[in-house]
Amino acid sequence: MESIYTRLQKRARQIVSSFSAPVFYSDHSRDFEYSAQFFKTDPVLKELYSFVAEHLDNDYGHGLQHATKVTFDAGALMHIEAQVSGYSKDFINRRLRVVQCAGLLHDIKRKAKNHSETGADHARGILKNYPLALSEVEDVCLAIRNHEAFKIKMPIDTPESGLVSDCLYDADKFRWGPDNFTDTLWDMISFYNPPLSELMGRYPRGMESLKKIRSTFRTATGKKYGPEFIDLGLAIGKELYETIQREFSQYL
Fold it and tell me: Contacts for 183-186 with beta carbons within 8 Å, 24 or more apart?
């Protein structure tokens, strides 16, 4: 017999499927495809992906699937923002590699107490074996250091470095939308397996955290499209909450 949370995840995915995908993916489908294709063909990223696949735990919903989604979206954001800034194609491709390295590695130390700081230091050690300039490695590490919400952002010296950091942050926070209810929430629950009544008791606080993320996006593109991700997450979360009360009340 299926567990209550297995059934709830299936129900949540049905709810998510009833909503339209975020407009970002239709408005910027070419940028997303460029990012995905670059990721799949760049030899540095292919090698780093293999490393991450072996060393990244699926900890609280922040495993390889999460890292890959963040990487693709961060690359798309970089492609959009860098073109607006007038950078050359060669420079944009270098920046794509940098931000996608950051995407792959941003949760490499997710189990650590200060995972962004510890992860940045660990990423520096990993990337010393890759053909990246020292400044590019530092851009990756700063981006990882700055990717957590509700924490003071470390100062950054150049716009180019700042863009890497901001693209990673926004791509990571896109995951607080529909992805939160298709995968992340259930992966987190699998670690704790709380009684359903306990989950429901914490549910309102989780929804409040979603609301707070809405105003934190950093790039121009993130500020334009990020709030819709969060609004979708809030709408899905509200419907799921009501569904649990209505259809799973016997477990409360």
Answer: 183/61, 183/65, 183/66, 184/60, 184/61, 184/62, 184/66, 185/12, 185/61, 186/5, 186/8, 186/9, 186/12, 186/61
Domain span at 41: 4-251
The count of domains in the chain is 1
pLDDT digit of tens for each residue in the chain (252 aa)? 578 999 999 999 999 999 999 999 999 999 999 999 999 999 999 999 999 999 887 666 678 999 999 999 999 999 999 999 999 999 999 999 999 999 999 999 877 788 889 989 999 999 999 999 999 999 999 999 999 998 888 889 899 999 999 999 999 999 999 999 999 899 888 878 899 999 999 999 999 999 999 999 999 999 999 999 999 999 999 999 999 999 999 988
CATH of the domain at 50: 1.10.3210.10
Place of tokens 């409360």: 252
Q: Which tokens in the block code for residue 243?
A: 């569904």
State the residue for tokens 């909503």.
19
Query: Whole-prediction pTM value?
Result: 0.95
Rounded CA-CA distance 170/216 in Å is 8
Q: Are 142 and 161 in contact (CB under 8 A)?
A: yes
